[in-house]
């Protein structure tokens, strides 16, 4: 990994209005999926893991939006 990559990963990336909209859209999409899974899946470790993985997906999706290079 290059020093520039490390710097980019550990730098604050303030959101532009467009990126705020992207964050909100992804958050809404995954929240809807979480509600659907919560309604459809039986309680248990597997359901908890599925919902946890959606939270992880949200984290990484938000990082992808925040860290994208300016075009």
Describe the structure.
It is a single chain. This protein has 71 residues and is mainly alpha-helical. It has one domain (14-66). The chain is built from three helices and no strands. The chain has helices spanning 3-9, 17-40, 45-67. The longest helix has 24 residues, at 17-40. It starts with a helix and ends with a helix. The model has no long low-confidence stretch (mean pLDDT 95).
SS element count, helices: 3
Q: pLDDT under 50 segments (min length 5)?
A: none
Q: How confident overall, as mean pLDDT?
A: 95
Number of domains: 1
Which structural class should the secondary elements be placed in? Answer: mainly alpha
Describe the biggest sheet?
Answer: none
* Total DSSP E strands: 0
Overall geometry comes to elongated
In brief, what are we looking at here?
The protein has 71 residues and is mainly α. Helices cover 76% and strands 0% of the residues.
Could you name the key traits of this structure?
71 residues, elongated, mainly alpha, 0% strand
How do the strands and helices of this protein lay out in sequence?
Blueprint: H1 3-9, H2 17-40, H3 45-67
